[in-house]
Structure formats: structure tokens, C-alpha cells
Design goal:
Blueprint lengths: L1 H10 L3 E2 L11 H5 L10 E8 L7 E4 L6 E3 L3 H11 L14 E7 L7 E9 L2 E2 L6 E5 L3 H10 L2 E7 L4 E3 L7 E3 L2 E3 L15 H4 L8 H7 L6 E11 L4 E8 L1
Parallel strand pairs: 8-9
Antiparallel strand pairs: 1-2, 2-13, 3-4, 3-13, 5-6, 6-7, 6-8, 9-10, 11-12, 13-14
Pfam families: POT1_C_insert (PF21375)
GO molecular function, one term: G-rich strand telomeric DNA binding
Organism: Himantopus himantopus
Length: 244
């Protein structure tokens, strides 16, 4: 567990942070006055590290434009779903050549209209564990229920001509308990009918990268980031950990 490991590091008076046994120790002051890139061996104390909570280290990163953002929480997604539920599913977009549709009205006071579109392969529905479906008008709870049973879930809404993705603040795809997000700056979302090209493949795998590509989405990747401040009495150096 990284958090307890970092706490142990802080308790030690001196921590060897890099290996490089063939190099002599270099003072941080010297490193700060040098031009990069160089390779050094240091002995230093870990003064601080950020963030303090491990879960706060997880961010979303676009490898194309280098944009870095916080991972949205469930409340943000729920609000977007509620906003999209105001638009009633368009019956003219139901039951096409590549998906079958089911629509019903909820029994609660709001009487929401929910539509689920099950993507077909060779004019047949696949097994649930291999199925991609699209949902309109669902709540966060309903979406998560579907992800437990079906391979892929895409939240959508109706336009006059086609189904479309929600705002890119919402995940463009859910698979199991993983939410996949797209970069707002680098994505150019295409109509949902673009997915029919994957459905027509011999064995549709519904891989997130392929789904993103046909939908014009530049996917964001989950990254792990931490900042360490190191001191040795001659200076303070910030070290960053960045990994997928």
C-alpha cells in the first residue's frame, strides 16, 4: 500500500531514492543549478508528498493534447443523465437494421420514458456478456444495473435524425465498473450509427479503443500522479511520478 510506504519513508531520517550505485551522491543544490537531462544519485529526506489521499492521485489525461483533469464523480454523471432524460426518446429511431429497441414508462411520479437499444450481430442478439446496448432516459442506478449484466453500455439521447452521445463530461462508454471518458478538445463525436460498422464485423469484440475510434472520440487515459518534495540541507527538489 503506497500510502503506508510513504509514511514509512517520512519516518526514516534518510531515504535512498534512486539506485545508480556507480554514481557518487550529488547535492540537490548542484542538481538545481544544472541543465537537464542528467543522471544523478541523491540521498535526501522526503519532506512532503501530494496528494495526501491515494485516490486523489488518479487523474484523466489526453495523450494527444496533454490535457489533465480530475476524474468526475458519480453526482456529475447523475446530473447529466437527469438532464438528458428531459428529452423523450424518439420512436422513429427505434428498431433499425442493426439494433432492436425496447421502451417503457417508469411507474414513479415522474413517469420517465426509458429506451434501451440492443445492438444486433448478423440480425441476431448476442449473449448478454457480449452485448453492447444504448440507453436513453436512465438514471445512474439503472445504468449501473445494466453494466453488471451486459458487456458495454453507452448512454445516448435522441435527435431528429439519429441517436447521439451525451455531453463529453459524461462517460461515452461503461464496461463493468470502468467509465471511459473522451477529450472535449480533441474529440469530434460522430452519430451513433457509426457503430453499425463494428456490428457488421465477423466477431464484434466491442473494444473501448475501437468504439472510441468509430465514434470520433479521443479517449482519456487514467493516470497516476504524485509530487514529492525532497530536501538534503542544500536545497529542495520537486520530483513527480506520472504513470498509466
Amino acid at each position: 500500500d503506497l500510502e503506508s510506504h510513504l509514511q514509512r519513508c517520512q519516518q526514516l531520517s534518510v531515504t535512498v531514492l534512486t539506485d545508480h550505485q556507480d554514481l557518487n551522491n550529488t547535492e540537490l543544490k548542484t542538481i538545481l543549478n544544472s541543465t537537464a537531462p542528467q543522471q544523478y544519485r541523491i540521498r535526501a529526506k522526503l519532506r512532503t508528498y501530494k496528494p495526501q489521499k491515494l485516490y486523489q492521485s488518479i487523474k484523466l489525461h489526453c495523450s494527444k493534447c496533454n490535457f489533465l483533469q480530475e476524474v468526475p464523480d458519480g453526482d456529475d454523471f447523475d446530473l447529466i443523465l437527469q438532464g438528458s432524460a428531459v428529452t423523450t426518446p424518439n420512436p422513429e429511431l427505434h428498431n433499425t437494421s442493426w439494433y432492436d429497441s425496447v421502451m417503457w414508462t417508469t411507474q414513479d411520479q415522474k413517469q420517465r420514458k426509458i429506451a434501451i437499444h440492443f445492438v444486433k450481430h448478423d440480425e441476431m442478439l448476442q449473449q448478454p456478456e457480449d452485448t453492447l446496448l444504448m440507453i436513453e432516459g436512465g438514471t445512474l442506478k439503472e445504468v449501473w444495473k445494466l453494466t453488471k449484466r451486459f458487456k458495454c453500455v453507452i448512454p445516448v439521447r435522441s435527435t431528429e435524425d439519429d441517436l447521439e452521445l451525451l455531453d463529453l463530461s459524461a462517460p461515452f462508454l461503461l464496461q463493468g465498473n470502468i467509465k471511459y471518458y473522451g477529450c472535449k478538445q480533441c474529440s469530434t463525436p460522430k452519430p451513433i450509427k457509426s457503430l453499425s460498422s463494428i456490428a457488421a464485423e465477423q466477431r464484434p469484440s466491442w473494444e473501448p479503443t475501437e468504439i472510441a475510434q468509430v465514434l470520433g472520440i479521443e479517449p482519456l487515459q487514467y493516470v497516476f500522479i504524485m509530487k514529492f518534495t525532497l530536501v538534503d540541507g542544500t536545497g529542495a527538489l520537486n520530483a513527480y511520478l506520472f504513470d498509466y
